Amino acid sequence: MLAITFLSCNPISMNLGTRFRYLGTRLRSWNTAPITREEYARHYQSWGGSFILHPEVLQFFGNVHGVRTDYHGYFHGEKCIGVVPAWGARIAGDRHALQAHGLTVQVDFGYPVLHLPVAPGYNCLILFRAGFLLDLQRRQVTGAVFPGLKEMAILKKIPEELPTGKNEYQIKERRFARLGGTVRDIREFNNEEIIAMYEALHLVRWQRKPHAIGTMKATLDHLGKFLFGKVLWLKDHPVAIQINYRAETSRTIAIDYINGGVDKSCDRISPGSLLSYINGRDACADAQDSGRQLIYSYGKANTAYKDQWCHRVARGFTGFWLP
Q: Residue 38: which residues within 8 A CB-CB, separation 6 or more?
């Protein structure tokens, strides 16, 4: 079991600011008990969770970036009903936690959503800081507030909930094939090839290199197994790619769409929209076939393009009122 390091502190020897933070640490974890990484991984797999909270992703942050994760369990009697990984006062992987540890300039995971591993039918009073909880867990996370002022973009059911239905995209898919286009799985390529395609197409689409492209190989060397989606090729070169990270559990399929690139010279066939359709359709079909909940996030709900593909879901906050 992990030791709770603050128990060894002597409050009398602290200055006022340190005492205040010490009190906050005590309050945040008062209703938890430390658990092991192995226990956390077992409950995560059983109850579901978002990609950024996957045990191997947390281990990546520790091994590569030196950020230690503490694992906290919430109990109902002797039964563990929820688990939370934490970096100090913050839930691990939350965008604010990434910023606090300087990770947003080193790696690119966009604005990852937090879907916490909590047992079905239970709720936990969670006091660790977080700003990207999903309204989908409102009943399971006591202490969180969902003011509705900030929202995340969560994929609609594809194709059922598309405004234009599936016919438009089926026509685009057939047209793409007639022009010599092929749809290839991103896992067909090695990490160097993926990075090269992503960098080139992102530069064409956005006129700048992707964020943290220089460290992307180290990220993919550890987390490339989580990549999901297709790459669109037209004759002998790629024309659209998306970087999606996918984590699966017995109850959930969680996908974070980070960013992508498109060859704008092919706008007549809309390869970017076609790729969004194909990736979304495949994810929705997989979730339906396996009977699991799909949480496919496009990050912050901040563009009309995302509104085409996603529902706006309220973003929740917890723990910010404690020191």
A: none
DSSP letters of 255-292? Answer: EEEEEEEE-GGGGGG-HHHHHHHHHHHHHHHHHHHHT-
Assess contact for 128 and 323: CB atoms under 8 A.
no
Question: Alpha-carbon distance 35 to 186, whole Å?
Answer: 36
Q: Which of 209, 241, 248 is nearest to 225 (CA)?
A: 248
Walk me through the domains of the chain, giving residue ranges and CATH numbers. 7-151 (no CATH), 155-313 (3.40.630.30)
Instruction: Give tens-digit pLDDT for 98-125.
Output: 999 999 999 999 999 999 999 999 999 9
The sign of the dihedral angle between the CA atoms of 141, 144, 147, 152 is negative
37 confidence band (pLDDT: 50, 70, 90): very high
pLDDT band at 12 (very low <50, low <70, confident <90, very high): low
pLDDT tens column, 56-79: 999 999 999 999 999 999 999 999
